[in-house]
Amino acid sequence: MGKIRKIMSIFIVSGLLIAGCSKESSSASKDYGLKNVTFPLKEKVTLKFMIQSSPLAPKDPNDKLIFKRLEKKTNVHIEWTNYTYDSFAEKRNLAIASGELPDAIFYAGLSDYELLKLAADGTIIPVDDLIEKYMPNFKRVLEKRPEYRKLITAPDGHIYAFPWIEELGSGKESIHSVDCFPWINVEWLKKLGLKMPKTTEELKKVLIAFKTQDPNGNGKADEIPMSFIINHGAEDPAFLFGSFGLGDNWDHTVVTNDGKVVFTAAQEGYKEAIKYLSELYKEGLIDEEAFEQDFNTYVAKGKAGRYGLYFTWDKANITGMNDKYDLMPPLAGPTGEINVTRTNGMGLDRGRMVIMSANKNLELTAKWIDQLYEPSQSVQNNWGTYGDTKQQNIFELDKKTGMLKHLPLNGTAPVELREKTSVGGPLAILDEYYGKVTTMPPDAAWRLDLMKKVMVPHMKADNIYPKVFFSLDELKELSKIETDLFSYVNRKRAEWIKNGKVEEEWPEYLAELKRLGLNRWLEIKQSGYDRFYK
C-alpha cells in the first residue's frame, strides 16, 4: 500500500505563491562546473534541497539509511531544509516569496495551479530537455507508460516537475478505486447473533443493536455504533452514498458511462443519503465527535475497540490487522440498487519535485534525481528499506536475486513504519516490478483482493475523472469557484446530518450552488474531460 500520505488539495487560493523574481539565491549551491557527470563523483559536492517529512521521521533526512546509501552511491551530499507536513506549505511559500530558493524542492506538494504560476514567474524551470539528455531511468518509465508523459505535460507543452508514480492494479481493480472502505465489528455481530447487513435498513438495525445491547460486555453504554471524520477523504462516510444513486467521493465528481461529468452533491440520491445519515444521527448511532475530531482522536478510539462501524483506507491503521473488523460489502438502498462509487484517484502526483531557477548545477541535479527512478531505488523511496540495524525494516534483500521482499509488520501500523524510513519524493513503481524487483506489500495485496471480490462487482462507472492538466486560466477560474462551492457543500453536508433539514433546505441549496458557479465549473470540467480523451 503506497498511500503513506494522501495529499489532495481541492482548494487552491489564487495568488498563494508570490514568486521571487531573482534567479540568484544564497540558499542555492555554487556552480561546480561539472560536465559529463558520472557517479560516484571523484570529489564530494553539496546540493541544497527543501523537503517535507513526517514528525515520526528523523529531523535530519540524512539520518535515513536510504539517503545515506544514496550519498555513498553518488558522492553528492544533500543539505536539507526539512519541515514537518503541517508547516511545510507555509515555509515553502515564504521561501519562494523571499527569493531565497534552494536548488530544488524534493517533496514539493505543489498543485497544478502552483506549478504553472511558478513556471510563469520563472521560479521553476522546465525539465523536458533535462529528461531527454540526462535521465535514462525516467525516460524508460515514460517509454513503457507513454500515458504518464501526457499526464505530466502542461498545456504549454512543457514538463515542470518530476512525478511520483505508484501502480497497484489498474482500471476498476486499482487500489485507488475506493478509498473509504467501511469496516464493521464482526465480533459484535457474532456476539449479538446478527448477520452482516446487506441493506441500509439492516445496517440501521445493526447499529441500534450495537448501541443498546452492550456488545463489548462491560455493562456500560460506551460503544460507538458508527464513527467517521466528516469531509476527510477515506474517513468520510461517502461509501454509504452509493446505496442511493450515483454516490459521492472526495471531490464530488463522477462521470457517467456516456461521458457526462456530474456533480454528485447536487443529485437527488445525495439528498436521500444525507436524510439516511440524519436518521442515524437522530437515533444516536453516530459518534458526536465525527464532525470535529482529528485523526489522532479517531485512531485512539479505534485502537480501544469502541467502533461498531467506521471508515478508512486500511483497518490496520485504526483498529489493527486482526479479525475483529471486516470489510462491510456495499449495501442495497431503498430501491434495491447497489452501487460502489469510484474515487477519482490514481497513483500519480505530478508536482512531487521541482528544480528552481537558482540552480547552477542542472546536469548534476538531473542525474541525481534520475537515480530515484531506478526501480529498486523507487521501491525503497516509497516504502522503506532493508538492513537497518537500528529499527524495524520494511524489506529483506534477497542477495541471490536482488529482489526486495516485504517483511511481516508484526503488528506495526504500515503507515507509521513507512513514514519513519521512506523518503517519498519522485519515483516510479510499475505493476511489472512486482515479482521481479519487489514483492507486493502484503497489505496492498490484501486490499486489492478485497477490492476485486467485494467492490468491483458493484462498480457501475466505467471511467473516473482523469487528472486533467488544465491551463492556468482554467485553474484560476476553477479555484475561484471551488473555494466557496466546496466549502459550502461540505458545511451543509455536516449541518444536515445533524439538524435533519436537508429536504426543506434543498431548493435553496441548489439555487446557492448555481449562484456559486456550479454550472460554469461543470463546463470547464466537461471541456477538460473531452479534451483529455480527444
Description:
With 534 residues, the chain is α/β, with parallel strands linked by helices. The chain has helices at 65-74, 85-98, 112-120, 128-134, 136-144, 146-152, 186-191, 200-212, 268-282, 295-303, 362-371, 375-383, 414-421, 442-455, 472-499, 502-515, 518-532, and strands at 45-53, 76-84, 104-105, 162-166, 181-185, 224-226, 253-255, 261-263, 307-312, 325-327, 348-355, 395-397, 404-406, 427-429. The strands form 4 sheets. It has a 6-stranded mixed beta sheet with strand order 2-1-3-11-4-14. A 4-stranded mixed beta sheet has the order 6-9-5-10. The protein starts with 44 loop residues before the first strand and ends with a helix.
- How many helices does DSSP assign? 17
Rg of Cα set: 24 Å
How would you characterize the largest beta sheet?
Answer: 6 strands, mixed
Strand content: 5-15%
Structural class: alpha/beta
Number of strands: 14
Distance between the termini: 32 Å
Mean pLDDT: 94
Overall morphology: globular
- Low-confidence segments, given as residue ranges, are 1-22
Give the strand order of the largest sheet, numbering strands 1, 2, ... along the chain.
2-1-3-11-4-14
Helix content: 25-40%
Topology of helices and strands:
Layout: E1 45-53, H1 65-74, E2 76-84, H2 85-98, E3 104-105, H3 112-120, H4 128-134, H5 136-144, H6 146-152, E4 162-166, E5 181-185, H7 186-191, H8 200-212, E6 224-226, E7 253-255, E8 261-263, H9 268-282, H10 295-303, E9 307-312, E10 325-327, E11 348-355, H11 362-371, H12 375-383, E12 395-397, E13 404-406, H13 414-421, E14 427-429, H14 442-455, H15 472-499, H16 502-515, H17 518-532
Helix pairs in contact: 5-6, 9-15
